[in-house]
Design brief:
This protein is α/β, with parallel strands linked by helices. It contains twelve helices and 15 strands.
Amino acid sequence: MKIGMIGTGWFSEMHCNLLEQMEGVHVSAVCGTSMEKAERLAGKWRDVSAYENVENMLDQEKLDAVYICVPPFAHGEMEKSVIARNIPFFVEKPIALDDQLPAELYAHIQEKSLITSVGYHFRYTDAAQRALELLQGRTVGMALGTWMGGMPQVGWWRKQEGSGGQFLEQTTHMVDLLRYTLGEVTEVYAAYANRVMHQVEEGVTVADVGTVTLKLASGAVANISNTCILPTSGQVGLHIYTDQGVMEIHSNQLVDRTKDETYTLQNQSNPYVHENEAFIHAVRTGDTQHIRSTYQDAIQSQRIATAALHSATTGVPVKL
């Protein structure tokens, strides 16, 4: 299989490394915002062509699938080009800055019946899978999600028109994990503020603290809060409060505290490996059952993030 990679950042290189380790899979082309960036990444493997124009790459290479790993503001035209050529694609989250563009793109995806996958890798962790099993038969009352850390040192991230803000760009992982384990969200109410980072870094227009209250279709309630003011990394995870006790899902483990015992499961497998294997298997065979986040599903997580921003801006709850 021949894979095309759009984007030259950390995620692009990570996916390239994993794909190159898979039997019968080769990243044959890389496209960057400049030829220098494309050649730098392409040069890490043998027989990889470099491009600085997506259309040229898609026209000159016969690709079986494409990976799109670009910042939120860059989405749109490249997906349209890939879809127009009937090429299955994997896209890193978040899938856009708003929810209008994903809805437009999905209409074309449906027309083509294209295989898609979105990089919500928490769904592929051992912890998340075990959580789904343990939650069976329990009544969930509420959940608390957090993404507490510092501000990434890339210029586009600190601008609202570049990243869409922390809740959309980073904390969307906790939103998606909430949906995956506890079901759909029906209403959000958010409060954001700029407390520190606009005085520390130049050109900051994103909120650096925020908290979002969510109502779920099940009747449970949740809160997901984030900040990027910390000098070091902080807490990231989802705590679920049930009639049996407290379940904590972290990036590396699951901790389940009930009345009688504390059960801990450390992740043994690499979720990035699993999500790549699921997508490549689907492209090869047409069997999509192992893909845990399709483009259609990811739209729901996107809607929550954009609704939260609207609520924080207007000061009123938003029903979904």
